[in-house]
């Protein structure tokens, strides 16, 4: 296929070579979309759904790597309790949460 395109470019002059260049740009743009942009949007949707489904009692991992338990949730923020001393409660943005692990029903008490 490449030979056919280059032969057409040689025979047709600059108009055909311009068409080949635009074809290359379109192929590279399509590859960038499927290998870079589409997976990133998919991950953003997954993260947004995970944060929207977050509830009090869930174990979370922050973007900085800290593990904690959610004790309160508002629209944009949540309060997370870190450590075992039950006094380290920090308000943080929901955007700072990287992972959510659902609280299991049998571990309380």
Range of helix content: 40-55%
Number of domains: 2
Low-confidence stretches: none
Count of separate DSSP helical elements: 2
Strand content: 25-35%
Shape: rod-shaped
Question: If you average the pLDDT, what whole number results?
Answer: 84
Counting helices, strands and paired strands, the structural category is alpha+beta
Q: Got a strand count? A: 5
Major sheet: order of its strands?
Answer: 4-3-2-1-5
- Could you give the distance between the termini? 69 Å
Main sheet? 5 strands, antiparallel
**SSE order:** HHEEEEE
Rg calculated over all Cα atoms: 26 Å
Would you write up a description of this structure?
By secondary structure, the chain is of the alpha+beta class. It has two helices and five strands. 6% of the residues are buried. β3 (77-82) and β4 form a beta hairpin. The mean pLDDT is 84. The protein folds into two domains: 2-50; 56-103, SH3 type barrels. Strands 4-3-2-1-5 form a five-stranded antiparallel β-sheet. It starts with a helix and ends in an 8-residue tail after the last strand.
